[in-house]
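Hi W., the uridine-5'-diphosphate complex you wanted:
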Amino acid sequence: RHDLRGVGLERRSAVAGRVPAAIGARRLRVVVTGGAGFVGSHLVDKLIGRGNEVIVVDNFFTGRKDNLVHLLGNPRFELIRHDVVEPILLEVDQIYHLACPASPVHYKYNPVKTIISNVMGTLNMLGLAKRIGARFLLTSTSEVYGDPLEHPQKETYWGNVNPIGERSCYDEGKRTAETLTMDYHRGDGVEVRIARIFNTYGPRMCLDDGRVVSNFVAQVIRKQPMTVYGDGKQTRSFQYVSDLVNGLVALMDGEHVGPFNLGNPGEFTMLELAEVVKATIDPSATIEFRPNTADDPHMRKPDISKAKELLNWEPKVPLKEGLPLMVNDFRNRILNEDEGKGM
Ligand code: NAD
Ligand code: UDP
Ligand code: UDP
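Structure:
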C-alpha cells in the first residue's frame, strides 16, 4: 500500500509537468527498449547508477547480453526477451524507446521488419505509456532530415527524404514514429519526449555494423585498409556515447517535448575521420576507396542551440578524446574473436 501511494504521487507530479521527486531515488521504475544495444546499455548503466529500477526489453536482433552481463545479478535490474512489435504489459514510470535496428547494414537487412518495428513497436510503447500514465521518450534520428538542404540542421527543418529508397525503411519509419508520438501527445495527453540523435560512437558498438567509426577502428586494429565510400568528402558530426546518454536523461527528466537535436557539432569529412583514427591507433594505417551507397547524405551537422538553451545540455567529449575510449574495447573484442577462431 505504501509503495502504491508513492507511485501515485510520482504520476501526479509528472502529469503536472514537474520533475517527479523520485527521480534519482530508488523507486523510479524505467523501461529501456533496445537496452541490450550500444546506446541502450550505456543508458541503463547511468539509470542503475543513479538508483533507478530498470527493465530492459530487447529481442537481441543487434543487442547482446554481454553488454548487460555486469548487471545480471542486480536486484534493481531485469532483462526481458521480447519483440516490441508485440504488445506488452508492464508497470513503470518512464519508457525510453530505443528498440530499432540502427546501422544501415542492419536496417537494410530486413527493411520490412525495420519499418514494422518502428511503427508497431512505437505504437505499442505509446499504448503502454497511455495505459499506465508513464512518460515516453522516442529516440529518433538525424536521418529524418534526409539529405539536408539546410546546413546545419535545426529542429524546425522538415527534411529532404526519399520515400522509396533503400534508407526509407529507417528514415520514414522514424518520421512515422515521431508522428505517432505527437498524435498520442495531442490526442491522449501522453507525456512525450523526442530526441533526434546524430551519429554516435563508443565502446560496445557492434564490431561489424558497417557504421563508419566502427568500420575504421576495427579495420585499423585488424591491419586492414580503412574503406572510404565515395570521394570521402561527405561530412558527419560524431558524438561520444556518454554525452548522448546525459542528453537523453536531461530530456526525459526535463519539461520540454522537443524534438531536440542531440549531437556533437564538430563536423568531419570521412577523409578527416580516417586521419584521426590513423593518428589514434596506427600511423601506418592506409585507406581504400569504395563506391558509395545510395542516397547517402552529403553533409550532416546538428544545430544544438535549442538543447543548450532549454535542456542546459551540450556535448563535452571531442572526437580526439572519445576515440581512444572505444579503442581498448574494440581491441579486446577483436582479440577474443581471433582466439575463438583458434588464431
Ligand atoms: P543498436 O543496434 O546497438 O541497438 C538497438 C537495440 O534494439 C538492439 O539491442 C536490438 O536488439 C534492439 N531491437 C531491435 N529491434 C527490436 C525489436 N523489434 N524488439 C525489441 N528489441 C529490438 O543501436 P543503437 O546505436 O544503440 O541505437 C539505439 C537507438 O538510437 C535506435 O532507436 C536508433 O535508431 C537511435 N539512433 C542511434 C544513432 C547512433 O549513432 N548510434 C543515431 C541516431 C539514432
Ligand atoms: N499496448 C500494449 N501495452 C499496454 C497497452 C497497449 O502493448 O499496456 C498496445 C496495444 O496492444 C495496442 C497499442 O499498444 O496495439 C496501442 O494501444 P491503444 O490503447 O492506444 O490503442 P487500441 O488498443 O485502443 O487500439
Ligand atoms: N562510410 C565510409 N566507410 C565505411 C562506412 C561508412 O566512408 O566503411 C561513410 C558513409 O558512406 C557515410 C558516412 O560514412 O557517408 C557515415 O556512415 P554511417 O553508416 O556510419 O552513418 P549514417 O550514414 O547513418 O550517417
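The first strand starts at residue 29 and ends at 33.

W.
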